[in-house]
Design goal:
It contains seven helices and four strands. By secondary structure, it is of the alpha+beta class. The longest helix is centred in the N-terminal third of the chain and has 23 residues. The model has no long low-confidence stretch (mean pLDDT 94).
């Protein structure tokens, strides 16, 4: 299938999941799911993967549920009343580590919002420890601060610090000490689903966002090379 945009019928389908969140409902509508969700997302992964090879020749871009796509089912033990996801995520990443602990080019969407980001959205303990040690180097800390403030000046958004207590041995008086309190590093933008989202032009739009954020990706990729990002447990 050639990618032609994300169909409006896909957003309608996600709205129906919100109202009918059960495995039985999804199984009864499996053909529709395959047509309006799985097929266009598979085509998008292939198309965007080719674009991203311009920036990262070794980018991971495979339309499988354990690779660039995600399972539609949540862990029923954690979400017994809402076992089906009503938000669709797509991820492309660089490196040999776990996809969620690698610097990635990411997008998710639901009927109301499209979220596009570059970075790592949650540091597991192993990567958090490595990150904090990594930025004890003054030059690396300044470089990260510059990257983040530059993206912010371009209109992109950043996550807020996650932690309140400064790690032991870190200089609280340093002008960039806030970086030690971060539990993730990424930049993002959001927009409502529009005519571009429903056309093949969404690939070019997202690629331009990824390109603007590419220096942040490079910094984070270098960070992950210092760490075994498969060391933590993932669900």
């Amino acid at each position: 299938m050639e990618f032609q945009g994300f169909p409006k019928a896909g957003l309608v389908f996600l709205e129906q999941i919100i109202a009918n969140n059960s495995k039985a409902w999804l199984e009864a509508h499996r053909e529709e799911y395959n047509r309006v969700i799985l097929a266009p997302n598979t085509a998008y992964v292939r198309e965007m993967g080719e674009y991203l090879q311009i920036l990262v020749p070794t980018i991971h871009a495979s339309p499988k549920s354990t690779q660039s796509l995600f399972r539609i089912y949540r862990d029923a033990r954690l979400h017994p009343t809402e076992p089906i996801k009503s938000r669709i995520g797509v991820i492309f990443w660089e490196g040999s580590g776990h996809r969620m602990q690698s610097s990635s080019f990411y997008m998710h969407y639901d009927p109301f919002e499209v979220f596009v980001s570059v970075g790592i959205r949650n540091f597991k303990p192993t990567l958090l420890k490595t990150y904090r040690a990594y930025i004890q180097n003054d030059a690396r800390r300044r470089e990260l601060h510059t990257l983040l403030t530059t993206l912010q000046a371009q209109g992109y958004q950043l996550p807020l610090p996650k932690y309140k207590r400064m790690p032991r041995g870190c200089d609280k008086s340093d002008s960039h000490s806030y970086l030690y309190l971060m539990g993730s590093i990424y930049a993002y933008t959001t927009f409502t689903p529009d005519t571009v989202f429903h056309s093949e032009a969404i690939v070019e739009r997202n690629f331009q966002i990824y390109q603007a954020m590419f220096p942040l990706h490079q910094w984070l990729y270098t960070l992950t090379l210092q760490c075994d990002t498969n060391a933590d447990t993932f669900k």
